[in-house]
Amino acid sequence: MACVHSVRFSVRINGSTLDPFIPSRGLRQGDPLSPYLFLLVGEALTCILKTEVVKGNITPLKVARRAPGISNLLFAEDCVLFFKATKEEAQAITNALNLFQRCTEQLLSTNKCSVLFSQVCPSQTQDEIKATLNVVSFTFEEKYLGLPTPEGRMKVEQFQPIMVRFSKRLTNWAERFMSHGAKDTLIKSVAQALPTHGMGVFKMSTGFCDQYEKLKRDFWWGDDQNQRKVHWLAWENMIKPKCKGGIGFQDISLFNQALLARQAWRLMHRPNSLCARILKAKYYPNGNILDTVFAVNPSPAWRGVEFGLELLKEGIIKRIGNGRNTQFSRDNWLPRDSGLKLAGLKKNSRQSYEDTKGKRAVVPCQASTQEPAATLPRWSAPPPGWVKLNTDGSLPPNSTTGGAGAVARDCTGKVLFAACTSLHNCTDAEEAEARAALWGLNLMSRHDPPGVVLEMDCLASVAALQSNDQDRSRLWNVYIEAKNRLLNLKVCAVKHSRERQTG
Using an 8 Å Cβ cutoff, are 239 and 216 in contact? Predict the structure, then answer.
C-alpha cells in the first residue's frame, strides 16, 4: 500500500512535461493504478483463506466428486465465501476476515453482508452461524452483478427489470415526432443492447423474447395502449439484413443462442479454467463438452450452455492433426459449407484411413473384406510444389447408386479440400471409379495447382487414363472427358495406389 502515499503525477502540455506533484488523498477513482489495488487486496484475502483450507479449518465447496474445491470467489470489492455450516468453521471465517482487516486497514460492512443456508441446515445451527459472523440478512438480492439470481427455472418475472428499463426509455422517447431513421438508431443502439448482459449467461424464456420483440414492434410502428396501427411489414422480414430487403433488427432468441454458443466455445478452448473444470466434473466427467447429453435437473447457467451447444455443433469443424482423437464417421471434419461429416457409411464401405507419419489419408480398401492394417497402402507425399488427388468410387451390391470421394493434399500433407458425393445410374465398380476420378478432377480445376498427381486404386481406370490409344470401351466418354481435364492442368500424372510396403 506504499504506492498510495508515494505516487506522483506529471502533466504534459504542448509536448513538455511539468514538474511532478504529490496528491494529498492518494489514488483516486479513475487512476490507472486503482484497479490493481483490488487485485492486491483480493490476493491477500485469497492467501489467508487458502491457509485456513490447508489447515483444515475451512471445508471448501465441491459441486461434484471430481470438482475442485471452492472457498471464495472474488469480483472487484465483492466476495462470496463457501464453508461447511458449523459454528467452528464460521469462527474460522471470522478470524480470517479479522486478520484481513488488520493487515489491510480495510473494514467489513456487515450491513451489506448476507448469508445463505441450504434447506437441510437446522435452524439452531443457522442462528449460531449468524451470531458468529454478525450477519443479519440471510437472503440474496434478486439481482447480483447485473444478473438475476437463479432459483429454479428462469421465468419471465426474473427478467422483468429489463422490460421495465425498456418501458421507461419508451416513455422518454417522443416516438410520434421521430423519423424511422431515428427509431432505427434507438432500437439498435439501446433497445437491443439492454438484455445483452443477461443473454450471455442465461437462456431467455420464449415469453420474454415475444414480449420484448412486441415492445420493439409497437415502438417502430407507433402503437400505444389505446390504438394499434397497421404493421406494414412482417416481423420475419424486419429481422432480415438490409441487403436482403429487411431492416436489420435482431432476433432476440437467435442472438441469445449465439452469445451462449460463445460461452460453450470458451469452455472448449479454456479447459483448465475454474469454470470449465467445475462444469466438466458436474455434467461431462468422462468425455468432452461436445459429447454431453441433456442433464437431469441442470442449473440455469448450464441450460444456457446446452442451448448454445445446439448451434455450435452445427458448424464446428475438427482439424484432423494426427487423427488420434477424431471419430471418422462421427465428427465434423470435412472442410466445406455443408455435409461436414461422412453420411451413409455402411459395413462394406470402401473408405478407410490409417496413421501415416502423423498424417491421416483417405485410402481405398476392398469392397467386401477388411484388410489388416499392416497391408494397407500408405499415403506418400507428392513432389515439392505438387498436389496429390486421391479419388475413390464405390457401388453397393444390387444397387445403381454409388458414392465418390476425393481428397487433395499438398506435399506437406495439408488438406486442400475433401468432398464426397453420390453417383446415380452406375452399372459397376469401374464406372464408379472412373466417374469419381472425373468428378475429383473437376474440383481440382478450380484450384489451378502447379502440378497434380491423380492416385486411384482401380487398375483398369489408371490404364485407360495413361493410354494414348483410342478408347473403345463402354466408358470411353468418361475417360475422354477426364483426359481433357488432365490436359487442362499444367503438369499431371496418373498413379495406381495399390503399392505394398515391404519390410
Answer: no
pLDDT, tens only, 312-353: 888 888 777 777 777 777 777 777 666 677 665 544 444 444
Determine contact, residues 400/425, Cβ cutoff 8 Å.
Answer: yes
C-alpha cell at 406: 476425393
pTM of the model: 0.60
Across-strand partners of 353? 362
Looking at residue 10, its amino acid is: S
CA 414 to CA 359: how far, in whole Å?
A: 9
- Alpha-carbon distance of 90 to 131, in angstroms, equals 9
State residue 257 phi and psi, 5-degree precision: -65, -35
Closest CA to 259 of 188, 194, 196, 187: 196
Angle at 304 between CA 302 and CA 305, to 5 degrees: 65
Cell of 423: 453417383
pLDDT digits (tens, 9 = 90+) for 225-263: 667 777 888 888 888 888 888 888 888 889 999 999 999
* pLDDT, mean of residues 288-307: 81
Q: How many CA atoms lie within 13 A of 2 on its CB side?
A: 0
71/148: higher pLDDT = 71
Distance, in Å, from the CA atom of 368 to the CA atom of 365, rounded to the nearest integer, reads 9
AA identity, residue 232:
W
Q: Is the dihedral of CA 369, 370, 374, 379 positive or negative?
A: positive
Taking CA atoms, 350 is separated from 106, 326, 402, 460, in Å, by 72, 19, 11, 17
Q: CA distances (Å), 416 to each of 246, 295, 337, 433, 494, in order?
A: 36, 39, 14, 21, 19
Contact at 8 Å (CB) between 239 and 187? no
> What would the grid cell of residue 363 be?
485410402
Q: How far apart are CA 394 and CA 479, in angstroms?
A: 17
- Please give the biggest Cα pair distance in the chain: 100
Q: How far apart are CA 311 and CA 176, in angstroms?
A: 39
Rounded CA separation 473/475 (Å): 5
Which of 198, 216, 303, 320 minimizes the C-alpha distance to 259? 198
